[in-house]
Specification:
The chain is of the alpha/beta class and about 240 residues long. It contains nine helices and eight strands. α7 crosses α8. The two termini are about 15 Å apart.
Length: about 240
């Protein structure tokens, strides 16, 4: 089984970290391929960058030259999952939905701890769109920019832990969700400090994608995610075909 894990930004080192986290939970025989878009922002922290990333990820996935069995979009709260589902005939799993749905198996309410405050409305909207907001206790910002997660990991952990503790004590959350692909691998440290289950979206998405492939299931094509209608699209960057 081959799963493509698409970073939503162009920072290759972050792609490597995300792919490493994915490989750490993948089953034997699952090949994880990290994908970095060829254009876009170095980090995604707002609507403009998110919409740009949506196009960039579709370009990167549709241009991938080898067969693959599933795709993971590794951007928390980012746009584009629906477009990938139209383009592809394999399962598409977004880490936002994977993390939230997994958290609901572990406790009554979950909280998301993300990067900057400006990302909070985007995440709230994506959870609402996916129908996963009813059991979300809160979405909290750590105050750390995406790139700072790599530049100052000790400070990042402290900021994430602080907000996680407040989510548990003030918002009554029973599970913490790490709300950024760049936080991959921090779940153990946050769990040790908070005492509650901590869900990393990349890890959750890998196990869900593997399950869908093994069950022989993929996106329904009868209506919402039917393939795009054939038409002239001027200036579209994608040159490859869909899987």
């Amino acid at each position: 089984m081959r799963i493509l894990v698409a970073n939503v930004n162009t920072t290759a080192s972050m792609t490597d970290s995300i792919a490493a986290q994915a490989r750490s939970v993948a089953a034997p025989g699952t090949e994880i391929i990290g994908i970095t878009p060829r254009f876009g922002a170095e980090s995604c922290e707002g609507n403009f960058e998110s919409y740009l990333a949506a196009v960039a990820v579709m370009d990167a996935i549709a241009s991938y030259p080898e067969p693959f069995d599933a795709v993971i979009q590794a951007g928390y709260g980012e746009h584009g999952r629906e477009g990938l589902q139209e383009l592809l005939n394999v399962p598409v799993v977004d880490i936002t939905e994977a993390a939230a749905s997994t958290a609901m198996f572990l406790g009554y309410k979950y909280s998301v701890v993300t990067t900057l405050d400006r990302a909070v409305p985007l995440i709230e909207d994506r959870l609402k769109l996916a129908g996963l907001d009813a059991r979300c206790a809160s979405v909290r910002a750590s105050g750390m920019a995406v790139l700072e997660l790599e530049e100052d990991p000790e400070r990042a952990v402290e900021s994430i832990v602080r907000e996680s503790e407040l989510a548990v004590s003030q918002d009554r959350a029973e599970v913490i969700v790490l709300g950024c692909g760049g936080m991959a691998g921090l779940n153990d440290k946050v769990r040790e400090r908070t005492g509650v289950p901590v869900v990393d979206g990349v890890a959750a998405a890998v196990t869900i994608a593997e399950s869908l492939v093994r069950l022989g299931l993929s996106t329904s094509k009868v209506r919402t995610y039917a393939p795009p209608r054939p038409k002239k699209v001027t200036g579209w960057p994608i040159t490859g075909g869909a899987a």
